[in-house]
Structure formats: C-alpha cells, structure tokens
C-alpha cells in the first residue's frame, strides 16, 4: 500500500504558510485540532521547512510581554523529513518511528506540499488492508464462493 492511497485524508491535514508570515499566523493554523504541522513554503510554493506546535510554544516562551513579531522562517525546522506519494506506508511509518515523528509532509516531484501524513491514518489504512486479507483468506479456507 502506498501513500497515494491515503492522499485524500492527508490533504485535509495540509496547512501552508509563506516563510515571511508571522509565527502568530502559524499558531492560528495550529490551533485547529486536525493540524499539528504547518508546511512553510517559499514564493514558488516549494517546501522550505515546517513549524510545529512545539516550535510555536518555544518561541512564545522567548517573546517579550509586548508581543512576538518573529517570522515563520526563524522558528521552522529546515531539515525536513518527508515522503512522496509513491512511498510505501510501511517505509514511511518506519521513517516516522526512527525519527519519533507523528506527522510527515508529502511532497510532489517539484517539492511542493500535497499533504501531511498522520501516523494514525497510515496505521488505520494498513489495518484495513490486513483485515481485508484475513477475510479473503477465511473465505478461501471455508470454500465460500468456490464450487
């Protein structure tokens, strides 16, 4: 099973901002319960980094009481671990486990974001596939559909 099989779900989790956007804009996007990672893009909509809830909280802790005017590019992670639609769910989950990630951006050949994979969504897809395989095997063993 490939990432492309869960792209409709991962597209719903995608939120992007420009690198020059204020961290407060990222915070607004991250306040949505379904969004835990914001992809930061350049003027050509190419991914240049990601901002997480942890990044925002860390920055707010360093801001003065008067407010925070830092831009997203100042707090983003630049060395992003990502996947492409043709990657297998197994390999992406392994990558996520190795790097202790819950979310990972999906990019196309031009490095433009097209989704964000959540580990739970990937696991549910794999579980669904396994349950289907079990049902097929059960039907085969019981001779259902075979004469």
Give me the secondary-structure topology.
Blueprint: H1 7-12, E1 16-18, H2 23-30, E2 37-41, E3 47-52, H3 53-62, H4 72-75, H5 89-98, E4 103-107, E5 113-118, H6 119-142
Parallel strand pairs: 1-2
Antiparallel strand pairs: 2-3, 4-5
Helix pairs in contact: 5-6
Spatial order of strands in the largest sheet: 1-2-3
Strand content: 15-25%
Per CATH, the superfamily is CBS-domain
| Highest-level CATH class | Alpha Beta
DSSP helix fraction: 40-55%
Average per-residue pLDDT, rounded, comes to: 87
Unreliable runs: none
Order of helices and strands: HEHEEHHHEEH
| Individual helix count | 6
Pairing-aware structural class of the strands and helices? alpha+beta
The CATH architecture classification is Roll
What's the Cα radius of gyration?
19 Å
Number of strands: 5
Major beta-sheet overview: 3 strands, mixed
Shape: elongated
Total domain modules: 1
**N-to-C CA distance:** 31 Å
User: What is the CATH topology assignment?
Assistant: CBS-domain
């Amino acid at each position: 099973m490939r990432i492309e099989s869960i792209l409709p779900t991962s597209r719903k989790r995608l939120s992007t901002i420009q690198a020059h956007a204020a961290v407060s804009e990222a915070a607004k996007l991250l306040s949505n319960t379904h969004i835990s990672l914001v992809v930061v893009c350049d003027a050509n909509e190419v991914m240049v980094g990601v901002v997480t809830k942890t990044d925002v909280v860390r920055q707010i802790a360093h801001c003065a009481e008067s407010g925070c005017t830092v831009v997203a590019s100042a707090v983003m992670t630049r060395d992003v671990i990502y996947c492409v639609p043709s990657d297998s769910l197994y390999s992406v989950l392994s990558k996520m486990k190795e790097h202790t990630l819950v979310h990972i951006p999906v990019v196309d050949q031009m490095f433009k974001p097209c989704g964000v994979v959540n580990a739970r969504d990937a696991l549910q897809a794999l579980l669904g596939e396994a349950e289907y395989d079990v049902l097929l095997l059960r039907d085969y063993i019981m001779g259902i559909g075979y004469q």
